Amino acid sequence: MLHGLLVDAGPLIAILNRRDRHHDRCLAVLRGTDAPMLSTWMAVTEAMYLLDFSMAAQDALLEMIERGALQILDIATTDLPEIKNLMKKYGDQPMEFADASLVQVANRHGLDEIFTLDRRDFGVYRLKRGRHFKILP
Fold first, then answer.
1. CATH number of the domain residue 104 falls in
2. For position 39, what pLDDT does the model report?
3. Which DSSP helix (H) or strand (E) runs through 6?
4. Which residues of the chain have pLDDT under 50?
5. Coil, strand, or helix at residue 42?
């Protein structure tokens, strides 16, 4: 079992963009935890795309990964069947690939806490054995 705080794209964007309406709230969560931040390349890719207005913000995100402030959990080919099943299960949402990757690594590593601004979707998603995510902020 891995210890850490799973992080979606939204908080990464808010932390790196002072003009984001969630900036202060996300910084407070970041400052209030000593748990390592964990994510997937899919969520990072989504954040990079949505930060395309600022090369400095994109660079800062990559620097967070380089210095280990944000650790990336790999998705292997063997994870794809479960990711496909998740995307089918929540097809009415629809579940994005980045979200499915986060749910998959949460299931694999026994993580149940997620730092996301997407309460609507992550409030619906269920972990193995029907557990709910604890959503921050």
1. 3.40.50.1010
2. 98
3. strand 5-7
4. none
5. helix
C-alpha to C-alpha distance for 11 and 78, rounded to whole angstroms: 28
Q: How many domains does the chain contain in total?
A: 1
Q: Angle CA(130)–CA(94)–CA(4) in degrees, nearest 5?
A: 50
> The tokens of 72 are what?
């990336």
The closest of 87, 97, 116, 43 to 133, measured between CA atoms, is 116
Q: What is the pLDDT of residue 1?
A: 83
Structural domain of 19: 5-136
Q: What is the largest CA-CA distance in the chain?
A: 42
Question: How far from the centroid of its chain's Cα atoms is residue 75's Cα?
Answer: 13
State both tokens at 119: 């309460």
Q: Which of 128, 39, 40 is nearest to 85 (CA)?
A: 128
Q: How many other C-beta atoms lie within 10 A of the C-beta of residue 117?
A: 20
